[in-house]
């Protein structure tokens, strides 16, 4: 690996370096689809007073998840 990296820096042709840069720029990591999906939202209800909140993360022991998942932060569009 070290010898390969060393040879890359010894390239005299700017065209070869440019093509190599394009290859690494446009090739997805691990050969698969690159990208992550956004986290989904869930509707949470308070065990104490029954109030409801839309959140992506768990709010703690005083809350229970009552509906979801949703695509938006208002918990209106089902996923």
Task: Describe this protein's structure.
With 79 residues, the protein is of the alpha+beta class. The chain folds into 2 domains: 2-31; 41-70, no CATH class. It is built from 2 helices and 3 strands, in the order H-H-E-E-E. The protein has helices at residues 2-9, 14-26, and strands at residues 41-46, 52-55, 63-70. It has a 3-stranded antiparallel beta sheet, with no helix packed on it. Strand 1 and strand 2 form a beta hairpin.
What is the topology?
Elements: H1 2-9, H2 14-26, E1 41-46, E2 52-55, E3 63-70
Antiparallel strand pairs: 1-2, 1-3
State the end-to-end CA separation. Answer: 44 Å
How large, in whole angstroms, is the Cα Rg?
24 Å
Oligomer: single chain
By DSSP (H or I, 4+ residues per run), the number of helices equals 2
Please indicate the percent range of residues in DSSP E strands (runs of 2 or more).
15-25%
Helix content: 25-40%
Domain module count: 2
Mass-distribution shape: rod-shaped
Largest sheet: 3 strands, antiparallel
- H/E element string? HHEEE
Look at the helices and sheets and give the structural class: alpha+beta
Low-pLDDT residue spans? none
Strand order of the largest sheet: 2-1-3
Mean pLDDT: 80
Number of strands: 3
């Amino acid at each position: 690996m070290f010898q390969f990296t060393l040879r890359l820096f010894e390239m005299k042709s700017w065209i070869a370096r440019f093509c190599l840069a394009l290859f690494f720029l446009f090739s997805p990591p691990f050969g698969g689809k690159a990208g992550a999906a956004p986290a989904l939202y869930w509707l949470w209800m308070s065990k104490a007073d029954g109030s409801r909140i839309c959140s992506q993360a768990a709010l703690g022991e005083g809350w229970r998840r009552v509906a979801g998942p949703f695509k938006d932060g208002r918990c209106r569009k089902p996923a």
